[in-house]
Amino acid sequence: MYRLLDKVNSPEDIKGFSIEELKVLCSEIRNYMIGCCATNPGHIGSSLGAVELIVGLHYIYNTPKDKLVFDVGHQAYAHKILTGRKDSFRQNRKRGGISGFTKRSESIFDAFGTGHSSTSISSALGLAEAAKMTGTEDKVVAVIGDGALSGGLAFEGLNNAGISKTDLLVIINDNNISIDKNIGAIHEHLLRLTTDPTYNRLKKHVWDRIGEGKFRKMVQKFIVSTKSSIVSASGGALFEALGFRYFGPIDGNDIAQVTETLSRLKDIKGPRILHTITTKGKGFAPAEEEQTIWHSPGMFDPVTGKRIKPADHHESRYQDVFGEVLLELARADRRVVGITPAMATGCGMDLLAREMPERFFDVGIAEEHAVTFSAGLAAGGMKPFCNIYSSFSQRAYDQIIHDVALQKLGVVMCLDRSGLVGEDGATHQGVFDMAAYRSIPGTIIAAPRNEIELKQLMYTAAGKDEGPFIIRYPRGYGEGVSWRTCEFAELPVGKAEKMLDGTDVAVIAAGPLANRAYEAAVRYRNETGISPAVYNIRFIKPIDENALAEAGKCRTIITIEDGVTAGGLYGAVSEYFAGKESRPRITCLGIPDRFIEQGTQQEERQECGIDKEGIFNKIYEEMKISCKKNQKVLESQN
Asked: Is 12 left (phi over 0), alpha (psi -120 to 50) or beta?
């Protein structure tokens, strides 16, 4: 039971709270969040640090009329709890439950949907311009973390907003604990002065009296120069140069200071920056001490903070294979370097970072830069392995074409989290990469079916001088094969693997789904005595035309992929047979033409029919159709 939180079902319910009551409410929200996330894992660290900031925003602003835009959404859990989704939060990120990110279709309080980083300033500027053009009095606030500020799109938004003179408040939620506390008496005095209503009314009156002209420009230039030298100590000079008025930094975990500052800033016009310092994981000691782990820690004990590990897995995660193999390749070849856009631990590149820091580059949340930087490294004679999550790589589509493929540079693109990713849902599903990149000339796209093939494909890619060489692999655990002891071996590019001989129906599968196809085919053989043929295609591009020709001798081909079927493996196989005089019936299993919402990976695979049971049923249906056609042919011949 919560004394205050139990009474809150919308932001309107907190408007009459005193500052002391708001402090209690923030504590209760934290406890509730910890209790929920202990058994239903989520991105808790950032949200724990943003509680006071979010409570303050809803306390001062008139939401949902006033619009709050959160970057990524990792920090928005308190926002969800305050806006009528308190009970639903227990089903956060679960199938049929609420999204782990803000989502317009979920709540009127979610002004803009998020999931990928650095979008808040651009979208908030659009909302602010729309409010101006439609004549509403809506206020717009963008809340962006210091990590998301490293993304190029954030700077594009800042650059445009600064010259637009639009009424927009951007809050930089700075939760990096390595930043020294620089909130002293002078900073607080300057903050109070620059946000004071009397000061701002006087300032406007002075400017109006001076009027336009050279004298006003001279005075403005002097003031800007003087103010910039003062605020530069806290990082404000950059934002002032971009056309923003900079305020702060303030303690973003002090609800009294947050509400007072927001109240003063609310009615100041034009583009403004408020810099807040918060503690990631605030209020939960384990999360404050190990911020990287507690970004998304999995299940844990809400009292002790002890993390509850899942049942023992004998398998390695694909990211573990990538990390260890990359380090092994780097030890053998001084040209090998690793590049990641702020996902070193998540992709396994932290191993290279620890042993060979000079050969490791974390470029921040900047996928476009990561690819072009990799292209530059390749042009300079290095062998870059650029690891980007599949859904994030979409942001670098132009760079992959223009800077890598067009120049035939040997960049190895390792797309982690390809396929269905689970609880992160629609914004993170890595299902578009095969279709997106297959049309790019000179591109190699490979999908390993297990840990050994990932190891061998990385070795193969390291020996190629032209690129891009794309290796896509899923989130989570592999097949449990012994990959560490196997010797490196080059795989012939564009060569498929035939896993099972068969008749009537040929199954062509990509990645680990080839294993599920094999298991389903063996089950069908055991139950019927008839074996479908199964091919592990390995390379979506260049595709093995000899294997396709052989599979085409069957009456039916089933393609199976964990990507969109439009333009992916199904598209490649269909295109090959399109010009043939005699061609089989081609059908598919894969991601349908819609966005797949959150759930477990297994639930999502079941939904799309690409789990072992779904593949078995598809084989059964197609063999049944094939048998009927055979029967009709025989009857017509007789």
From this structure: alpha
Strands 539-541 and 245-251: unpaired
Residue at token pair 């009095």: 137
How far is Cα 409 from Cα 440, in angstroms, rounded to an integer? Answer: 13
**pLDDT score at 272:** 96
For 41-63, b/e burial (b = at least 16 CB within 10 A) is bbbbbbbbbbbbbbbbbbbbbeb
Helix (H) or strand (E) holding 275: strand 271-277
Catalytic residue status for 395? yes
Selected catalytic residue, list 367, 423, 604, 622: 367
Q: pTM to 2 decimals?
A: 0.88
Q: What is the DSSP letter of 279?
A: -
Dump the DSSP string for 370-423.
HHHHHHHHHHTT-EEEEEEEHHHHGGGHHHIIIIIITTT---EEEEEEEB--ST
Q: Over pLDDT 70: what percentage of the chain?
A: 88
Q: Nearest to residue 373, comparing CAs of 348, 333, 340? A: 340
Q: Which of 245, 280, 417, 472 is catalytic?
A: 280
- CA-nearest of 247, 215, 253 to 230 is 247
Question: Secondary structure of 145-187 in the HEC alphabet?
Answer: ECCHHHCHHHHHHHHHHHHHCCCEEEEEEECCCCCCCCCCHHH
Q: Using CA atoms, how far apart are residues 342 and 361, in angstroms rounded to an integer?
A: 9
Token code pair at residue 475: 């989130």
Adjacent-strand bridge partners of 44: none
User: What residues contact residue 204 under an 8 Å CB cut-off, 6+ apart?
Assistant: none
- Laid out side by side, the sheet with 383-389 consists of 360-362, 336-340, 383-389, 412-418, 469-474, 444-446, 539-541
- pLDDT tens for residues 426-458? 999 999 999 999 999 999 999 999 999 999 999
Residues paired with 250 in a beta bridge:
276
Q: What is the pLDDT of residues 283-336, one digit of tens each?
A: 898 888 888 888 888 899 999 999 987 765 668 999 999 999 999 999 999 999
Query: pLDDT at residue 203 above 60?
Result: no
CB atoms within 10 A of CB 90: 16
CA angle at residue 149 from 147 to 154, to 5 degrees? Answer: 145
Structural tokens at position 73: 């959404």
Tokens of 161: 């907003």
> How far from the centroid of its chain's Cα atoms is residue 478's Cα?
21
Q: Name the catalytic one among 395, 538, 541, 618.
A: 395
What is the rounded distance in angstroms from the CA atom of residue 257 to the CA atom of residue 472?
A: 47
